[in-house]
Amino acid sequence: MQVTGHAIADGLFTDEAQPRLIGGQDLESGRIVFPCPTGDRFAPIPLSRTGTLWSYTIQRYRPKSPPYAGPEAFRPWPVGYVELPGQVIVEARLTNVAFDAITIGMPLEMTLIPLDPDAAEPVLIYAFQPIGASA
Amino acid sequence: MSGDVCIVGIGIHPFGRTDGTSGLDQGVVAVRAALADAGIAWPDVQFAYGGSDAAGNPDTMVERLGLTGVQFINVRNGCAAGGSALFSAQMAIKSGEFEIGMAVGFDKHPRGAFNALPSEYNLPEWYGDAGYMITTQFFANKITRYMHEHGISQTSLARVANKAFRNAVHADHAWRREPVDIQTILDAPLVSDPYTKYMFCSPAEGGVALILASEKKARELGKPLIRLKAAAMRTRPPGSFEVFAPSIDIGGGKATATRIASADAFRMAGIGPEDIAVAQLQDTEAGAEIMHMAENGFCADGDQERWLAEGLTEIGGKLPVNTDGGCLACGEPIGASGLRQVYENVVQLRGDGGGRQVPGDPKTAFTHVYGAPGVSAVTILER
User: Fold this and answer.
1) Which residues of chain A neighbour B154 with C-beta distances below 8 Å?
2) What does pTM read for this prediction?
3) What is the pLDDT along chain B (383 residues), one digit of tens a residue?
4) A57–chain B nearest CA distance, Å
């Protein structure tokens, strides 16, 4: 199911049916980073939609606001690093997966989730889920 | 200048929570103790470097200590603030310009986790909005990967915390001084998996002051010569995995600021990790102590599992680590934390450790701090 809403920031992911993160490629060295830095040293490059889990943890307490802009009501969420083959390792929320089913190396795909699931017009953030999983 | 820079006076205000006393006043308490320890008066101090992250400008303490016109430079360098103040103080004496001066650090943080803002770290606003701007999250991700690669168990994390609270029983300046058994540590609520609440240090309060002098001046004062053989502060190399990292290079995470800083410090001191008798390693969380044992060259990655099971980092062990309970038991006032490690090493080298004294008359001592956004500071002391 595709969630509706608006992106948390411009230039983070592509406007496609199956969105991809937008990294930045160093024009001299070819090194890829995420997000794409401003300035003329890096060119935007769409990143792989799929990758494998590199590391993870569970955020068990509500982060302080500011800067956290999520809902007051807090449920723990998993967050980790996903290796996009041949490109870069990106930090991302994990979704649609039981905490005890998370393992390093598991295949994942990118999706969008609302920062606040109860908001009428939610802000969308990128996340990764087990390939083929759904909410 | 000939000879080494020596530490001739140490002072500390207890770490933890001291309601009603500002961070700066805790720094002043530490300065007065250090002056008394050195047997000098404030007007004898020729220069000072002061570190504070959240408790105001250190140079304002001249109002409390006396308006002597002393040169006083403020240092703001994240978790390396204390180390940077010490490095700078050392260079001022090495230059030959000064004979005696001070490095001081203090802080007072609000309760709960640090709330860093993206703009302070050159990061976009969305990174904080989405809930990534959290040090505990990074530390947990880092140790999860490390445990996976090097076969470290959660029990080893608990052993580190257990040791910290046991050592702190004997340290007057420590905050959490009640022993906690390993099972209680493991069964406590998780903060960020695999870390339970006993495995993270807390932001705290405290102050530390060190008086440094040229070797000639130290001899005049008649103090035991605690020589600062090396002080190194370094920033991150390519391919490292640091606090607040939206992405990491593939294959990254192996090179660290700590590896560079410690290698340089050992080179300056002309000794190796095997020569160190006692070490204070940054342990803002239990896994940090484990990773820093290897990053500083004391053991190979993965050997920590055996080292901890065999008690090799206990006070009577092969390499005692965090003899006053470290950050886990003392808490972390950022500006003071790195100087607390040096304070503790001077106590140990003088043989004044009481119930936590490292046996065998230690002659060499090592300190290490690490912090955002990838900085590390290391010192080596010799007596």
Assistant:
1) none
2) 0.95
3) 678 999 999 999 999 999 999 999 999 999 999 999 999 999 999 999 999 999 999 999 999 999 999 999 999 988 889 989 999 999 999 999 999 999 999 999 988 777 788 988 889 999 999 999 999 999 999 999 999 999 999 999 999 999 999 999 999 999 999 999 999 999 999 999 999 999 999 999 999 999 999 999 999 999 889 999 999 999 999 989 988 999 999 998 888 999 999 999 999 999 999 999 999 999 999 999 999 999 999 999 999 999 999 999 999 999 999 999 999 999 999 999 999 999 999 999 999 999 999 999 999 999 999 987 889 999 999 99
4) 5
Q: How far is A132 from chain B (nearest CA, A)?
A: 24
Cβ–Cβ of B131/A68 closer than 8 Å? yes
Q: Which of B283, B263, B264 is nearest to B79 (CA)?
A: B283
Q: Do B191 and A89 touch (CB under 8 A)?
A: no
**A69 interfacial to chain B (CB closer than 8 Å):** yes
Residue A122, chain B, CB below 8 Å: the answer is no
Q: How far is CA A26 from CA A21, A31, A40, A43, B22, in A?
A: 16, 5, 9, 7, 47
The domains found in chain B, sorted by start residue, are: 5-110+205-227 (3.40.47.10), 132-201+229-382 (3.40.47.10)
Q: Residue B126: list chain A partners with CB under 8 A.
A: 8-9, 12, 125
Amino acid at B32: R
Strands B100-108 and B190-192: what pairing? unpaired
